[in-house]
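ok, trying the design again with the full structure, not the truncated one.
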């Protein structure tokens, strides 16, 4: 599975030249997230996510990512209802900024403030302006940009925490089996914290994790696994 299971979009960097006369409206449903089976989560929302959604780890080369599991097959978000309503108790923060998103510069990997021009939420006559004047974002757009930057920082913090747990040897593949009619199939690519391996750490290794402040993620992930049953029921 991949955390980049996102719907088709026309994401473009915000610019005065392109968007000076554009206004934006807030989204009215979550159809835009319908194909996001996984979504990265940020540190500030860890406890709220753990209370509503299963959390898993994804390995990307030498790095790790912490994600909420919204579906068990790529391209399927089970928490978006037929009418676009959100069916879960908590809405991951990265969804709440739509139609805005963070992009990356191909030259230096700097963050770029972007907007999905295919969202249907841009207009010239209705909504909040994107720019106040040339080169200056409007107050409303600037608040969204600050929010997205905070979310990105929180995602990076959890990714580093997951890497520390992996380095301690307490992350393992998460064997998930789905009943598909009369047959069974496996969901691959997700990882979890091994309660057994965590409990077998010696005092020095455990203290190192505690001092690094990553035990909240370990226990949060283990606690959140009970919500996998809800995902299965929605499926």
């Amino acid at each position: 599975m991949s955390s980049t299971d996102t719907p088709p979009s026309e994401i473009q960097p915000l610019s005065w030249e392109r968007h000076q006369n554009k206004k934006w409206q807030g989204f009215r449903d979550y159809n835009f997230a319908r194909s996001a089976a996984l979504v990265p989560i940020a540190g500030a929302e860890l406890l709220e996510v753990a209370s509503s959604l299963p959390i898993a780890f994804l390995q990307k080369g030498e790095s790790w990512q912490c994600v909420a599991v919204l579906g068990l097959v790529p391209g399927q978000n089970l928490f978006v209802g037929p009418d676009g309503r959100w069916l879960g108790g908590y809405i991951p923060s990265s969804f709440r900024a739509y139609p805005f998103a963070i992009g990356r510069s191909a030259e230096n990997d700097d963050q770029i403030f972007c907007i999905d021009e295919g969202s249907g939420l841009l207009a010239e006559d209705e909504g909040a302006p994107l720019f106040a004047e040339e080169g200056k974002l409007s107050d409303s757009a600037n608040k969204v940009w600050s929010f997205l930057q905070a979310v990105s920082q929180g995602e990076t913090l959890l990714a580093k925490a997951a890497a520390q747990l992996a380095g301690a040897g307490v992350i393992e593949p998460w064997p998930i089996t789905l009943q598909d009619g009369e047959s069974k199939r496996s969901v691959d690519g997700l990882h979890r914290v091994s309660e057994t391996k965590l409990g077998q750490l010696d005092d020095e290794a455990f203290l190192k994790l505690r001092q690094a402040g990553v035990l909240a993620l370990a226990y949060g992930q283990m606690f959140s696994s009970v919500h996998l049953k809800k995902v299965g029921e929605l499926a």
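Keeping the full-length input from now on. The chain has seven helices and 15 strands.
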